[in-house]
């Protein structure tokens, strides 16, 4: 969580509780506390001296405020401890003097750019210019926090920024990605909460490693967002995502999303419940790399075209509980599961792409569940135990009867030679069944 | 940069103020999006919207600050009055208390803005005439006595919303033409972009470190 000096002008504390010696260099650990947020900055004496030189030049400070240089014996612990105390005094004096002006050199020295709302947001406009803007959790948090803070008074020169143009950039941003994995774990008492109020036209949002409880309001996203990716964030259900900002996760009214593409891969979702009713226009759902056991709620999504449930450890497709009500489903990825059967997949009459690679399908009879699908053109079967069979492709194609020539297996359309073999096998089968092959 | 829908020659800063629940955010939304926002959440702190309009053949960009009506945000919202060229002061025609508080909103505005700031009084929710608690005449008299412009409007139907924002802009523009509003004054709330006809985006602008445009 970020703090702000402007709203804590008397609640700050600067201490240097300890020093560390590393490779013959002494680092003073400065503990900066502003309001209820504190952080540590490690600085060497030479950095203090550099700061002092800049402040002496630009702010007219007395250069003798800084404890003097020492050339010999400056690694003596007693000397270091004495200097620590003097530097702490120095820092407090100049901070008090320059609190309102806050020259860039002092702001940088205290790392305000990573901890104070007014300084964090200064970097944001530059980042929003990119085609796909990338911001950190702390930056989005600071934007949210900024709108709840007063504007810095005119005399607080170092804190000034062009808030109108910042908010305008936000309101024009179409695509935003927030990666929480690059930041340190948010503290439990002061989580860097976010709302998306300044983002009025956002269409594509990608959240990586962003725990859902950091989002206190998603209302700004509900009407504009077209694609939501929220991956690797420990979500345990779809409600976690779609009702991230509700305390009572049962307020389904008024909280619908216009989004039509959702990617919640790499989470811990077990069950797709009724919360999908909040995304009635969903066309594509990616739940790969979760722990899906049941998907009954999905049946209400009659517009759904694409479903990715690869890499979920699914044993039996039928047990997922989805059926022909998903009449628009055209694309299913079930790769990397533990399926032994294809039962239940014959319901989806619009299906034209099916990936069941890397499963445990060991019997050609399973293909019979698919061979009545009128639009199936792409079937990915590789890496199953039947695919090691020498005539595997021909045996699969043969089951599709007169549609065999339209079905591409493992991304390769049937060759003339394969189709000839298929024709022979089909004729033999018909004879066996006592019918005339012609 | 190409001349397009984003080119303009002036920027006017507006603020919208008034009690909680009078419909400030809905007025802004109706003006910028031409839609009514049902179930509008409370504004936390401030919100911001822009729209480019045309007055006397000049493109003008309105930067509109919508403030929280809740008392607890007063310190935040007061900091946004500074340098406003226009102030839209809103009450709810169906709740007299929101009308009764106008004098305190007005004195805040007078104290925190400059003398050339145009103050426009809006009686919102004119669609709810049946529940009216403040007559048009009474409010009109208050406006006249205090030299305010006044309309009754409805953020729900959109009635008179456009007019309120545009009339305010016309009045500001007039003040500029008459020389009553000094463009060079730090807190006029107006920025002139005389040589730039096609400013497509503010995104690339480095924030001006020496001035605060809020």
UniProtKB/TrEMBL annotation, chain A:
Residue ranges of the TM segments: none
Pfam family, one: PX
GO cellular component entries: cytoplasm
GO molecular function term, any single one: phosphatidylinositol binding
PROSITE patterns reported for this sequence: LRR (PS51450), PX (PS50195)
Protein name per UniProt: Uncharacterized protein
TrEMBL record, chain B:
Keyword Zinc: no
Cofactor: Mg(2+)
GO biological process terms on file: defense response to bacterium; endocytic recycling; Golgi to endosome transport; phagosome maturation; protein transport
Subcellular localization, as worded in the UniProt entry: Cytoplasmic vesicle; Early endosome membrane; Golgi apparatus, trans-Golgi network membrane; Recycling endosome
This enzyme's EC code(s): 3.6.5.2
Family of the protein in this entry: Belongs to the small GTPase superfamily. Rab family.
Protein name in UniProt: Ras-related protein Rab-14
Taxonomic lineage from the root: Eukaryota, Metazoa, Ecdysozoa, Arthropoda, Hexapoda
């Amino acid at each position: 969580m970020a703090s702000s000096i402007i709203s804590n002008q008397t609640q700050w504390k600067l201490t240097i509780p300890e020093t560390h010696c590393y490779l013959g260099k002494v680092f003073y650990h400065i503990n900066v506390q502003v309001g209820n947020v504190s952080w540590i900055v490690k600085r060497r004496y030479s950095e203090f001296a550099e700061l002092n030189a800049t402040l002496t030049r630009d702010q007219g400070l007395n250069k003798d405020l800084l404890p003097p240089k020492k050339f010999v014996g400056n690694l003596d612990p007693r000397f270091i401890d004495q200097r620590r105390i003097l530097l702490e005094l120095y820092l407090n004096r100049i901070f008090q003097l320059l609190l309102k002006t806050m020259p860039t050199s002092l702001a940088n020295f205290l790392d305000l750019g990573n901890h104070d709302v007014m300084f964090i947001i200064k970097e944001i406009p530059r980042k929003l210019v990119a085609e796909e803007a990338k911001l950190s959790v702390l930056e989005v948090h600071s934007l949210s926090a900024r709108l709840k803070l007063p504007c810095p008074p005119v005399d607080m020169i170092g804190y000034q920024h062009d808030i109108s143009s910042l908010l305008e950039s936000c309101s024009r941003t179409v695509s935003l990605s927030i990666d929480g994995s690059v930041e340190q774990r948010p503290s439990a008492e002061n989580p860097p909460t976010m709302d998306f109020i300044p983002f009025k036209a956002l269409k594509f949002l990608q959240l990586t490693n962003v725990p859902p409880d950091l989002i206190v309001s998603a209302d700004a996203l509900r009407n504009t967002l077209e694609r939501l990716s929220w991956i690797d964030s420990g979500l345990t259900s779809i409600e976690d995502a779609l009702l991230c900002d509700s305390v009572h996760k049962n307020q389904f009214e008024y909280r619908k999303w216009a989004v039509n593409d959702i990617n919640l891969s790499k989470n811990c979702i077990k069950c797709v419940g009724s919360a999908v009713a909040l995304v009635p226009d969903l066309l594509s759902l990616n739940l790969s790399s979760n722990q899906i056991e049941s998907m009954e709620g999905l049946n209400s999504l009659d517009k759904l075209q694409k479903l990715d449930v690869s890499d979920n450890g699914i044993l039996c497709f039928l047990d997922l509980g989805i059926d022909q009500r998903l009449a628009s489903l055209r694309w299913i990825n079930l790769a990397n599961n533990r399926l032994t059967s294809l039962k239940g997949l014959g319901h989806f009459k619009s299906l034209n792409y099916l990936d069941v690679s890397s499963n445990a399908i060991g019997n050609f009879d399973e293909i019979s569940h698919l061979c009545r699908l009128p639009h199936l053109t792409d079937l990915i079967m590789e890496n199953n135990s039947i695919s090691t069979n020498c005539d595997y492709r021909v045996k699969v194609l043969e089951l599709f009867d007169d549609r065999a020539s339209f079905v591409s297996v493992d991304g390769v359309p049937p060759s003339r030679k394969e189709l000839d073999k298929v024709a022979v096998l089909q004729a033999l089968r018909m004879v066996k069944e006592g019918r005339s092959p012609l | 940069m190409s001349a397009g829908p984003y080119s303009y020659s002036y920027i006017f800063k507006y603020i919208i103020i008034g009690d909680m629940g009078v419909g400030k955010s809905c007025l802004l939304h109706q003006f910028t999006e031409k839609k009514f926002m049902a179930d509008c959440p409370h504004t936390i702190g401030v919100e911001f919207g822009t729209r480019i309009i045309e007055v006397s053949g000049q493109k003008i960009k309105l930067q509109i600050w919508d403030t929280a009506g809740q008392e607890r945000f007063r310190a935040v919202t007061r900091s946004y009055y500074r340098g406003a060229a226009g102030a839209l002061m809103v009450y709810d025609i169906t709740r007299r208390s929101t009308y009764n508080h106008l004098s305190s909103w007005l004195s805040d505005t007078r104290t925190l803005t400059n003398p050339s700031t145009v103050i426009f009084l809006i009686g919102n929710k004119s669609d709810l005439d049946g529940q009216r608690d403040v007559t048009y005449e009474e409010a009109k008299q208050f406006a006249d006595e205090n030299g305010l412009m006044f309309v009754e409007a409805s953020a729900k139907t959109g009635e008179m919303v456009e007019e309120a924002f545009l009339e305010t802009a016309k009045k500001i523009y007039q003040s500029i033409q008459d020389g009553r509003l000094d463009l060079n004054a730090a807190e006029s709330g107006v920025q002139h972009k005389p040589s730039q006809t096609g400013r497509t985006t503010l995104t690339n602008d480095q924030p001006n470190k020496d001035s605060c445009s809020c």
